[in-house]
Amino acid sequence: MEINPILQNVLAPPVLFFLIGAISVIFKSDLEIPAPLPKLFSLYLLLAIGFKGGIEIQKSGFTDQVLPTLSAAILMSLVIPLIGFLILRFKFDVFNSAAIAAAYGSISAVTFISAESFLESQKIAFDGFMVGALALMESPAIIVGLLLVKFAAPKNRPKSRKMHLSAILHESLLNGSVYLLLSSLIVGFLTASSNPSGIEKMEPFTGQLFYGAECFFLLDMGIVAAQRLPRLKNAGSFLIGFAIFMPLFNAFIGVFVARFLSLGPGNALLFVVLCASASYLAVPAAMRMTVPEAKSSYYISTTLGLTFPFNIVLGIPIYMGLVNTIIPLSPL
After folding, report:
1. What is the DSSP code (8-state) at residue 159?
2. How many Å apart are CA 222 and CA 109, to the nearest integer?
3. Which top-level group of life is the source organism from (predicted)?
4. CA distance 108 to 137
5. Does residue 20 fall inside a structural domain?
């Protein structure tokens, strides 16, 4: 008996553990994950996907499809925050609009990992070079968000809050998650090029432990997301609608770009998920430090409390349906 893809996705262990974490908060369980562990698992997941992605890029090489796909990924992370900013300006000031738009222009690595798990469960092939797109899409949106504040903010902004281009670039390119992901990508690439036995030695750590670590991390994410839900009341209906509309809109654009690039269904889904996901780690960290005028409850509660669970529970199978509908059409 064939199970509906949405139901099959919901019944996958990572999603079930996410829901178990959320339910524990709703029913006031005393389940608690010690603070250092989620950070450790987050770093582990970034290291593992970067390392495996570097290996796959070395294997596939920089083909005619790799460079256009990576270029399109960067372009999307520059365009999406601009679109989001224009929409949000109908309701919010420059600071909040730029911070929220940057969050939705950047990506969520955990959503990407969930999409990979979904593809594996559906036995749909995808290429490791898509991890390169993941790594390249995190920083540009931060740069766009901070530049929007720099050029559109009121002229009387305190001098202490003026931003210099060097500080913007440093925060965007060298924040912890971007640095670890890119570094691991390079290590994986170099290992596959010059020391293949190193891949075998790393496999128990980056391969066999990965799925369990993902489940544990999503258990914590479920707890955190549910804890953020009450704050959505303060966000208002406009922002709640934006948190659902924007991923769907970005996915729709992403699938047409994927079709233009002639990506296969697996790579197309990963590309669409990158366009539709939102950052709840790197961007909030950057915005909290450089744009304190923006309310963190807006961009964290919506991305983590609404967009993230929507994407991993319903969004991924919906985007797969979009890919299966639009990609088979005649080329653009």
Report:
1. G
2. 15
3. Bacteria
4. 10
5. no
DSSP string, 230-250: GGHHHHHHHHHHHHHHHHHHH
Distance (Å, rounded) from C-alpha 272 to C-alpha 251?
5
N residues, the chain: 332
**In this predicted model, what pLDDT tens digit does every residue of 57-116 receive, in sequence order?**
888 777 778 889 999 999 999 999 999 999 999 999 999 999 999 999 988 888 998 898
Q: Is 109 in contact with 45 (CB distance < 8 Å)?
A: yes
Specify the amino acid at residue 244.
Answer: I
The answer to whether 232 and 305 have CB atoms below 8 angstroms apart is yes
Q: Tell me, yes or no, whether 204 lies in a domain.
A: yes
The answer to whether 178 and 135 have CB atoms below 8 angstroms apart is: yes
Q: Evaluate the CA torsion angle 196, 197, 201, 204 in order and state its sign.
A: positive
Inter-axis angle of helices 176-194 and 165-173, to 10 degrees? 60
- Give the predicted TM-score (pTM) of the model: 0.84
One-letter amino acid of 115: A
* Host domain of residue 60: 37-154+162-326
Tally of CB atoms within 10 A around 154: 9
Q: What percent of the chain has pLDDT over 90?
A: 34
How many CA atoms lie within 13 Å of 258's alpha carbon, on the beta-carbon side? 32
Tell me the average pLDDT of the chain: 85
Identify whether 24 is part of a domain.
Answer: no
